[in-house]
Amino acid sequence: xxxxxxxxxxHKVEELQTLLSVHLPDVRVHSALALGGMPPVVEDADTFKxxxxxxxxxxxxxxxxxxVLADDSxxxxxxxxxxxxxxxxxxxxxxxxxxENRAKLLESLANVPVGGRAAHFSCVLAFIDANGKExxxxxxxxGEITLAEEGSGGFGYDPVFRPEGxxxxxxxxxxxxxxxxxxxxxxxxxxxxxxxxx
Length: 198
Prior knowledge:
Strand content: 15-25%
Number of strands: 6
């Protein structure tokens, strides 16, 4: 099966390719670039699931009947009433860099002490099969926000997120460990089980 990933984020494509190759070696994973690039999508839904489906539908419409997989994910911080949430990628502005988003997050939590910085990463994968049928799979990874950046691995908020049960951030942990724990890995495990069972 050919599977096209509905994102322009190369980091997400690489992470999904790595995770899928382990469990589904017969699935050929392609970037949206193979179809000419990700079409513009106004992510105006108010949930990760809604935005994930918007992206999947947009790419499926130009896929020629191939299966597509979209991801919408973000960081939800308890002390910020769930922010940045669905606005994680543009928390510091529409064209903000990962570093700018992290800086704004740490500034927003400047007066929140250790012990009050609980957060979780959330991911919803939307899969549209070759027949146009829609399915969604979700995953969460609990943890906390550090007082400062730690490590330079991963992407997005990884250097400021310490997963539950670990002393290191996702920016410090090995990719193999992250790919076992992450919200995306948990959602993808459900997706893999679904494909294997069908």
